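Note to self: the last two entries modelled the partners one at a time, which told us nothing about the interface. This time every component goes in together.
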Amino acid sequence: MPELADVEGFRRVIDSVAGSEIRRVEVLDAGVVHNVSARRLESSMRGHRLGKAVRTGKWLVVPTDGPALIFHFGMTGSLKWIDDKSERHRHDRVVFVTNHGELRYRDQRKLQGVFVAKDAHAIGGIVGRLGPDALDIGASDFRSRLETKRSSIKSAMMDQRRLAGLGNLLTDEILWRAHIHPAKTTKAIDDGQWRALHRASQSVLHTAARAGHTPRGPRWLSGVRSDDDARCPRCGAGLKRTKVAGRTAVWCPVCQRPATS
DNA sequence: CGTGTTGTTCAGTT
DNA sequence: TAACTGAACAACAC
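The predicted structure of the combined assembly is written out below.
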């Protein structure tokens, strides 16, 4: 699930409970706690208040009046705020019990998880080299960061060092909206297509970020991409599935004509 | 028992 | 160097 839009949703979960004081940390599965021990996570966070979260790409940094919490959600992670007595979910891995409710890091596959940094500025060694967030990047920046990678456009868009936040679904959605084939080489994209791509990116990302997830509506590729016999929401053609940049790309053979040369 | 999965990283290769 | 491929991580559905 978690790409830019989903993590934006998690950011707002944190924002809505900023100020809550962590009373206890329950590490139910230490496999998701990455750069500190479970014991250290508990002792370093106890008694501190959650601040406003900052998202960059798929990373979420949560400052406190002590150390900062850092989350990456891999493919199946999420953050849940529970203010009633709901049962723990079998995939709840870390629970931050506060004075107002519980913040739960839930994750089936445990590919990423929870990190701790001295403060919100000391995240360099954890997050690595990230490009600017894909939301609200300007058209010329967008283009120059992508076109210098000689690869398929899909590969460039998913490269977190160029633009941060786009994953497999959002990338396919944007390319579909812009009528560009996912395997098209960056250097084969013309001026008009770069403009269309940027415009589609902003449109998709703003809507998805506002929703807190990539919409699955009838006008969205994401709404049909998993269907058997999936059809293009725009023209009705049968959608194609091919491997591009190591991932399954879903695209419309009519709206996104494959490269001819 | 295979195959696939909304992410990232690393070793090996081109 | 740049980019690609496959594997690995882990868990589950089909």
